[in-house]
Design a protein that fits this description.
This protein is mainly alpha-helical and 182 residues long. The chain has helices spanning 6-25, 52-61, 75-80, 82-99, 134-153, 174-177; strands spanning 110-115, 126-131. It is flat.
Length: 182
């Protein structure tokens, strides 16, 4: 039956798709999922609490931008007053580690437009940049440092069905270089 009514066409198409998927799924067997207990003899990655010396090291390594985050904090101010702010930063960084959850306020960013080149009157010559809270950047850097150390020091993982059988040609940490936090 041919029709030009959009509701009828859409309904027919939906019924066809649903019935096709149901028919296809009848031809596949669900794989058996086996339980693999945790092996305590193998290394496990756990994010440790950060200490004052580690916070100072991270603050020192941050690039000094004067762009303010959502809380009006900037890396330049943090670097100038790092000795005074180190203990509160330790507490603020360790709290989500202990609670196992990143605070919602850390996930918000301030979006600002940065001029690239050309005519300043053309909107296309500006690039949007998200400025996340400094405390989040520090926590990310701390987690990345620990994950890098873990991957550099742990034994190469056993091959699985999802990996190539050939040995790893590069250390696993090369993947982290693409995730490096400034």
């Amino acid at each position: 039956m041919l029709t030009d009514k959009s509701n009828t066409v859409v309904s027919s198409f939906n019924r066809f798709c649903i019935s096709s998927v149901k028919e296809l799924t009848m031809h596949f067997k669900c794989p058996d999922i086996s339980y693999h207990p945790f092996d305590e003899s193998k290394p496990v990655f756990i994010i440790r609490d950060i200490s004052v010396p580690e916070v100072l090291k991270i603050i020192t390594s941050l690039k000094s931008y004067k762009a303010k985050d959502e809380f009006a904090a900037d890396k330049y101010f943090l670097k100038l007053h790092k000795e005074t702010l180190a203990s509160p930063v330790v507490h603020l960084t360790n709290l989500p580690i202990k609670q196992g959850e990143v605070p919602t306020t850390w996930k918000t960013s301030k979006v600002t437009l940065v001029f690239k080149a050309g005519d300043k009157m053309k909107p296309g010559n500006y690039q949007p940049v998200s400025i996340f809270p400094i405390i989040l950047k520090m926590a990310e850097k701390w987690a990345a440092m620990q994950l890098t150390d873990y991957l550099n020091n742990c034994h190469a993982p056993q091959p699985s069905a999802f990996w190539n059988i050939t040995p790893l040609k590069q250390p696993p940490v090369t993947f982290l270089r693409t995730l490096k936090v400034n």
